[in-house]
Amino acid sequence: MAATASPHRHLLVFPYPAQGHMLPLLDLTHQLALRGLTITILVTPKNLPFISTLLSSHPSSITPLVLPFPSHPLIPPGVEHVKDLGNSGNLPMMAALSKLHDPLVDWFNSHSNPPVAILSDFFLGWTRRLATNLQIPRITFFSSGAFVASVMDYIWNNVEKLKSLSEIEFRHLPGSPVIKQEHLPPVFKLYKRSDPVWEFVRDGVIGNTKGWGCVLNTFDALEAEYVRYLKAYVGHNRVFDVGPLSLTGPDVSDRGSSGSGSVLNDQVLTWLDQCPDGSVVYVCFGSQKLFRKEQMEALANGLEKSGTRFIWVVNSGTIQQQDEGYGVVSEGFEQRIAGQGLVIRGWAPQVPILNHKAVGGFLSHCGWNSILEAAVGGVMILAWPMEADQYVSARLLVDDLGVGVRVCEGRDSVPNSDELGRAIAEVMTKGEGMKDKAKDLKGEALAAMSHGGSSMKNLDRFVEEVCQLGA
């Protein structure tokens, strides 16, 4: 039986406004509300629509706290979400949100039943200082996995020593991985000692493992050894792997859609129903990646030459970007591949697609949410890591778990379309061993989130621990 909290145990949840960060924390918040916690969720006005499903599911236990978005010289007026800035917008977004410190202190001090803790995204490391000032614990939510969290902590704690190395040895981690510097999140190479912006980033990252505890969107079968490492590293047991959280949200069919996705959902699933089991490769590179003209053409030609059925999700960008060839599918392509493939522009119902029996492979940038959704679908990964933590996550899939194969790498790479086509065709027709491992991982993911599973037990344990706070 799930743990039931006292109705007076109040938690402040602070998501980071980027899709890959926000979705899993909203799913976690849903689970915490089901277990009886009272929750205030902090958003700025333009991010309020993202939590509408959650609010309607829990009208009495989840309350929004809507604070004005603080201005920042590098963020255009009216922009409050990273999807409108791209990956380079993370630093100004983190800096802008840190200005909410004082309004949050005022809100806390005026509240009749203030929160007993802050649960905030790992990109909001400055909230540890806020929690200290309020004399309550800060709990870090990692929307990524334990391997990435461990790597990030180490490189930021040793940034001066590691910056100049071409390869970095992580001897303290399970398996002692050696990772090329170019495959690590690029921000730490830009670090400048004593620069206030970079010291702010560094302090935030290294503070993530120094708080009261950590909650991670991962599960035992995926990363048990890295979770064990983190527990040993932080010196306590308050490290909770509670994923894949995509299995537990209030409604996963239109995750990330800003409007109704039901019509598109029906069209795509009808198309998939006509395809043989395991024959379709799903192609999607997340909500932020926009391909330039040469990349679009290489990918289109590779998909066509593969002879493999496919669904390709294309980010189109602004009208100006389209005029420059970004996100533009070349004329005639969709007519040529009419029987072979489907092109979707903008948002796609990724969870139902990956769970359809016709889909056997996922050509992905290896963003963590996509990895978990592929695991739940029992689908192998054709990895094209590009930036941030994606190379580290791809390594976990390909080298540690054997559920993926690398087909390209690099944000600006233009693959050889003949080689890409061959690679897709080969893995989709001959990758039986990988397919079997992916199906096994699906079983483990479903078991973790079922009654009595490891992640469900960790969720219950987390709520029990939170209920001890402020007692």
TrEMBL record:
Q: Does the keyword Glycosyltransferase apply?
A: yes
- Tell me which family the UniProt entry assigns to this protein: Belongs to the UDP-glycosyltransferase family.
Q: Which UniProt keywords apply?
A: Glycosyltransferase, Transferase
Every Glycosyltransferase N-terminal domain range: 13-245
* Annotated signal peptide: none
The UniProt entry, under InterPro entries, shows: Glyco_transf_N, UDP_glucos_trans
Spell out the Pfam families in the cross-references.
Answer: Glyco_transf_N, UDPGT
Q: Which residue spans adopt a coiled-coil conformation according to this UniProt entry? A: none
Please tell me the species this chain comes from: Hibiscus sabdariffa (roselle)
Name of the protein this chain belongs to: Glycosyltransferase N-terminal domain-containing protein
Entry keyword annotation includes Transferase: yes
